[in-house]
Amino acid sequence: MAQLRQSMGSVDLSLPNELDLLQAAGRVALAHGQLELMLRMTIKSLAGLTIQEVLHATRKSKNWDLRNEIVAHFNSKTKNPALRLKLKAILGKCEHLSEERNRLLHNAWAIAEDGSVVMKGSNHVWGPAPTPHDLNVLAEELNAQVSILNRERLDGFIRDVLEDPH
User: Fold this and answer.
1) Total Cβ atoms within 10 A of residue 118
2) For residue 122, what pLDDT is reported?
3) Pairing relationship of beta strands 117-120 and 126-128 according to DSSP bridges
4) Taking the model in full, what pTM does it have?
5) Are 47 and 70 within 8 A, CB to CB?
6) Residues 29-34: contacts with CB within 8 Å, 24+ apart?
7) Which residues contact 150 (CB under 8 A, 6 or more apart)?
8) CA 1: distance to chain centroid?
9) What is the domain partition of the chain in residue ranges?
10) What is the 3-state secondary structure (H, E, C) of the chain?
């Protein structure tokens, strides 16, 4: 595998062998996919689209596009500032979790000379990779946020706004 030099030696651009680490990274990736789908389903509900329509309409949309689309549709349905802030809080948590996923998974991983798993950080310096625990916690937070958004969409304040004739 390719070797890269770093200030403290070199790293091997190999995937880690720790199955628990790889499984946890996979959980994060899958949970984030569910979050993206729930953002699309929220647009579906707010815009009155079919599943196929929303999937086609948002096919290449980034997460920030989806969140902005949700806010625009929701704000067109209600002027209630408390409900707008409630939605903003949920979407803000979604944004934070997406950024955390990006920070932990969207950087190069490698094996350091001592055998430890390292990750290229935002400042392009190799540092410790997240632990399985870190990744599993993030996956659980993503799952919880998907549940919150879905509950509000189907039975909570988002549905209430859609059913309000004003």
Assistant:
1) 23
2) 78
3) antiparallel
4) 0.90
5) no
6) 29/101, 29/105, 30/139, 31/138, 31/139, 31/140, 31/142, 31/143, 31/146, 32/97, 32/98, 32/101, 32/142, 34/142, 34/143, 34/146
7) 38, 41
8) 30
9) 18-108+128-160
10) CCEEEECCEEEECCCCCCHHHHHHHHHHHHHHHHHHHHHHHHHHHHHCCCHHHHHHHCCCCCHHHHHHHHHHHHHHHCCCHHHHHHHHHHHHHHHHHHHHHHHHHCCCEEEECCCCEEEECCCCCEEECCCHHHHHHHHHHHHHHHHHHHHHHHHCHHHHHHHCCC
Q: How far is CA 61 from the centre of its chain?
A: 14
Mean pLDDT, the chain, rounded, equals 93
Using the CB atoms, write b or e for 127-153: b if 16+ within 10 Å. eebbebebbbebbebbeebbebbbebb
Kindly tell me if the per-residue pLDDT of 8 is higher than 80.
no
pLDDT at 102: 95
Query: Which amino acid is it at 49?
Result: L
Mean pLDDT of 27-41: 98
Each residue's pLDDT tens digit, 104-124: 999 999 999 999 999 998 788
